[in-house]
Amino acid sequence: MTAGDTPLAPAAFTRAAASMRPAEVRPEIELEDIPAPQRLAPYSAAIGASVYRDDDELAVGRLIMLFDPDGQRGWDGQFRLVAYVRADMEPEITEDPLLGPVAWSWLTESLDAHGASYAAAGGTVTRAVSEGFGNKAEDPVTTELELRASWSPLEEDLSGHVAAWCDLMCLAAGIPPLPPDVASLPPRRREDPEPFRT
User: Fold this and answer.
1) Are 113 and 89 contacting, i.e. CB atoms less than 8 angstroms apart?
2) Going by DSSP bridges, is the β-strand pair 79-89/142-153 parallel, antiparallel, or unpaired?
3) d(CA 98, CA 189)
4) pLDDT for 37-87, tens place per residue?
5) Is 61 in contact with 169 (CB distance < 8 Å)?
6) By C-alpha distance, which of 66, 26, 76, 73 is closest to 46?
7) 10, burial (CB in 10 Å: exposed 0-12, middle 13-18, buried 19+)
8) Is pTM, for the whole model, over 0.85?
9) Distance from the first to the final alpha carbon of the chain
10) Neighbours of 195 (CB within 10 A)
11) In 36-186, alpha helices (H)
């Protein structure tokens, strides 16, 4: 919400927004607060993320939380989460006709694995091929996967939904989910100094 004459945000929205910043996240993921769209709902919050292996960015995404005290048609509640994930993929993977259903299952299975209850889920999976021409003819052909989804969380605590979205990004980047008995590390922003090394 913007400052000024905007009324104080409802407590339910404030609690949900606070739960979007987990205390722990996988070391491959970097989270950041990003501006949220202002026209989709009376209240909104958003986070962005990138998945890295070494210094290579493998996937990017954003997760937007919308809140309308009166609800909206198709929401099944006051909250709606809108997710976007984009990842580079090998051409032979994007040619697989099962990629769409498999990518969608990454989302639903991740939500289930984190106990994130939801309703009214929907979305699209897109494969994009970029090919250079003219003075860009020598550029390599690149292929990407894009997943856009939205669903209605059935609880104010969105931490399980954020964890599922992070797992989705890692799966799209080709990084398997962490086993349940392996702890993740606290998030580190890219601008943070490198840890001291001996």
Assistant:
1) no
2) antiparallel
3) 35
4) 888 999 999 999 999 988 889 999 999 999 998 889 889 889 999 999 999
5) yes
6) 66
7) middle
8) no
9) 45
10) 6
11) 91-94, 99-113, 159-172
